Amino acid sequence: MSGRAAIGVFGGSGFGQYLEGAEEVRVETPYGDPSDAVRIAEVGGQRVAFLPRHGRGHDLPPHRIPYRANLWAMRELGVERILAPCAAGSLDPALPPGAFCVVDQFVDRTSGRSHTFYDGPGATHVSTADPYCPHLRAALLAAGRAVGADVRDGGTMVVVEGPRFSTRAESRWYRQMGWQVINMTGYPEAALARELELCYASIALITDYDTGVEADAGEAVQADDVLAAFAANLDVLRDLLASAIAALPERPADDPCRHALAGARL
């Protein structure tokens, strides 16, 4: 059916170039315009909706991304499961640039972002104890191994407000806390997906060692280095996502994500 898809992908603007013959759809939401038009195409026999979270020209900084509009637009198009690749820095010397990490936890260090659909009246408390869909995580891990990527199972992603990078003191603290990955877009995206009972999983492409990590000898990360590292690994990421999408089975009836609101409303 035209204009509909069951699988969504949030990602950088570069991935969209691989969607041949894509249909563009503009979606109006109660939360304003999404980051861009949604492009819908067939990937691995599945209808996939792709939305560049920063906009097609990378115009939106992390703290200005309309996260609520983006998630709402995906659901309006019929999307039930979302794969969310992202660029990330490493806080762990054993997690080098070029590796992929299928994270299993996040820590929110953002501020000022609209991060819930439930502003009242009434209270809705959705559990995010395990914020990423176990079925999508398994699919990403299997796909990464199938395409020969260096993919790691699990890790905590600390999400910072941005757009600045960390101070050395902040980076040292994050590492001392035992967190592996640092990123600017992972929250509230994951939490909003859970509030809409959508399956969601994130795979972090490691583009650099964050400031203060010993393996990087104290070199401070620069934005152009991040973009260059992401571009260098884009083909691997494309193959990984295509493999995961093609192998996805039907969404299980007992999937915990689809029942996230059960018992959440007071």
Give the helices and strands, then pairings.
Blueprint: E1 7-11, E2 23-25, E3 38-43, E4 46-52, H1 67-76, E5 81-90, E6 100-102, E7 105-109, H2 134-146, E8 151-153, E9 156-160, H3 168-176, E10 181-183, H4 186-195, E11 199-209, H5 223-232, H6 234-247
Parallel strand pairs: 1-4, 1-5, 5-11, 6-8, 7-9, 9-10
Antiparallel strand pairs: 2-3, 3-4, 5-10, 6-11
Helix pairs in contact: 2-6
Kindly provide the name of the CATH class.
Alpha Beta
In angstroms, what separates the terminal alpha carbons?
37 Å
**Strand content range:** 15-25%
CATH superfamily: Nucleoside phosphorylase domain
**CATH second-level architecture:** 3-Layer(aba) Sandwich
Structural class: alpha/beta
Please characterize this protein's 3D structure.
The chain is an alpha/beta fold and 266 residues long. The chain has one domain (7-259): 3-Layer(aba) Sandwich (Rossmann fold). Helices cover 25% and strands 23% of the residues. It has 6 helices and 11 strands. It has helices at residues 67-76, 134-146, 168-176, 186-195, 223-232, 234-247; strands at 7-11, 23-25, 38-43, 46-52, 81-90, 100-102, 105-109, 151-153, 156-160, 181-183, 199-209. Strands 1, 2, 3, 4, 5, 6, 7, 8, 9, 10 and 11 form an 11-stranded mixed sheet that branches. Helix 2 (134-146) crosses helix 6 (234-247). The longest helix is centred in the C-terminal third of the chain and has 14 residues, at 234-247. The termini are far apart. The model has no long low-confidence stretch (mean pLDDT 91).
